[in-house]
Structures are given as C-alpha cells and as structure tokens.
Design goal:
Largest sheet: 7 strands, mixed, barrel
Radius of gyration: 30 Å
Helix content: 25-40%
Shape: extended
Structural class: alpha+beta
CATH architecture of one domain: Beta Barrel
Distance between the termini: 76 Å
Number of strands: 9
CATH topology of one domain: Ku70, Chain: A, Domain 2
Strand order of the largest sheet: 1-2-6-9-8-7-5
C-alpha cells in the first residue's frame, strides 16, 4: 500500500522514522447519474454567470472571499502560496493523555504508522509504553498544506495516528437543548429496568455482524432491473411502531421478558404447556 507521507514520529529525544498509510479502505457505493427523462442523456453542469447567462471558462475564474453580503475580496494563487504551511517531516508528541479522557467526537480519520528501516525498535518501544500506560500521544501534523491535530495510540501491534478535530470545530452541547432526568421525572426503578435490558442485550463488539443492508438491497434491485425482473415488495419497509411515552414502563417490562427468554435460550411456556407439565408431574407422583 502506497504511503501518503514519510517523516518521523518524535517524543522527547527519540526519533522514529515512519510513513503514513490509510487505515480504511474505500468501498465502492452504488451511485446514480441524473439523466434527461426523454432520451436518458446525462445532464451536463456548466459554470454559468448569472449576470449574463454565459458559460465562464476556467481561465476566467478566480477565488474570492465574501467579507459582507455581495462584496468580495479576490485572493490570487501566489498570495495563497505565501500563507500555506509546508508539509512537515515530523510529528512531535506534545502531550500524553489518558485514552478515556478524549471525547470520541474529536477523532476523524485513522492512519497506520509504518516503521521505516532503523525505526523498528523505538517503534515497538513506544507501542509497548502506550499500551502499558493506556496513554495517547497528542501532536500536530501538516499534511497537504493543512495543519492537523493528531492522536497516536497503540492498537494491537500497530501504532495508529488519528487526525483530530480542533475544539472550535465541535458544537457544544450547551448550544442545544436536551431533556433532563428531573424534567422527565425519571424514576429509579425505570433506570434499573433500562440497565437490566441493556445487560440482557450486551454482547462483545463484533463488527462483522453489521452490514450496509440498503446497499445490498439496492444492488439486488439493479440486478433484477437489468434482467427485466420485478422484485417483490419489502415487508421490512414498514415504519416501526411509535412508542407511547405512557407505555414506557410496560414496554421496558415486555422487552426484559423477551430478552431474558432469549438469553436463557428457551421460550416462555404457554398456559397450555404449563397445564400439560403439571398433569405429567401429578401422574408421576401418583405412580410413585
């Protein structure tokens, strides 16, 4: 896999030559073109000036910043080049923090750090130290003329660098309104039932269980249309029943009963089965 950056990872006086490789793969998604309904010709989009309705060629287009409504200041490529930060050749760890102290909203894109020749031992040393201390290194990386906040963590045998969002990029929860437990009059027994339900549904995380079902159905639809077949209606497309707030406790109780039975691997016995079981027990007692 081709690396997108080559440089060094540094902490203290330790310098580790590394390269950066994407930790995710691009999965092709089904896409559509917009077509003219009458002849199925793809629609073409052009750069049209709204003032005269004429198509504008690329060599007549400039970049402008709108500093007030309808007013722009033009910035040339030469001016932009002066403020661009050159790609750095080092990721310096500025701080080390506990992994559970970082809000997951800060994380964006993961990359693998690949050790280069001569960097294998310090690479393994840093990995072991991060794993043993449950710490994450925080630093900065300039990639493609853009400065990024980054986190370096140990995952298995790898060091993973994750591009992060800066604090100003996050929307503060205080900017939105969320219901408080006091306002909703949440009772301790309701919380206990919800916690028990979560416990019944708890499983080790297995990412292989989850798939893009919409994409699979879309491909099935397209294959059927290409063969001139009609696909049956999807019964799963029904909207889920809306939970009545007044029924919340009853719904929790029903969910608990259902998940508890599934967890035991047995269905709840019906009244008829209970009656049959009691009759069999009575006959055994009389026989003895």
């Amino acid at each position: 896999m081709a690396s997108i950056w080559t440089g060094a990872l540094t902490f203290g006086l330790v310098n580790i030559p590394v390269s950066l490789a994407s930790a995710v793969r691009s999965v092709e998604k089904t896409s559509f073109r917009q077509l003219h309904k009458d002849d199925l010709t793809p629609i073409k989009y052009e750069r049209v000036c709204p003032a005269d309705g004429e198509v504008v060629p690329w060599n007549e287009i400039v970049k402008g910043y709108e500093y007030t409504k309808g007013k722009y200041v033009v910035v040339t490529p030469e001016e932009l080049a002066k403020v661009k930060t050159p790609s750095s050749k080092a990721v310096e760890m500025m701080d080390f923090v506990k992994s559970d102290e970082i809000d997951s909203r800060y994380f964006d894109t993961p990359y693998y750090l690949i050790p280069q020749k001569g960097g294998e031992k310090p690479y393994a040393l840093l990995r072991e130290a991060l794993q043993n201390t449950d710490m994450v290194g925080i630093g900065k990386l300039t990639l493609r003329q853009k400065e990024h906040l980054v986190a370096v963590r140990a995952i298995g045998d790898a060091l993973v660098l994750e591009l992060m969002r800066f604090e100003e990029e996050l929307l503060a929860p205080e900017d939105l309104r969320f219901p408080s437990s006091e306002e909703q009059k949440i009772r301790p027994q309701e919380v206990a039932m919800a916690e028990q339900l979560i416990g019944n549904l708890a499983e080790p995380f297995d990412p292989s269980k989850y798939h893009d079902e919409y994409e699979a159905k879309l491909k099935t639809l397209l294959r059927a249309k290409l063969k001139g077949k009609k696909i049956p209606d999807d019964d799963d497309g029904e909207k889920p029943e809306r939970t009545n707030v007044l029924d919340l406790v009853a719904r929790l109780q029903e969910s608990l009963a259902s998940t508890s039975a599934k967890k035991r691997g047995t269905k709840r016995p019906t009244a008829e089965k209970k009656k049959t079981t009691r009759a069999k027990t009575t006959r055994k007692r009389k026989a003895s």
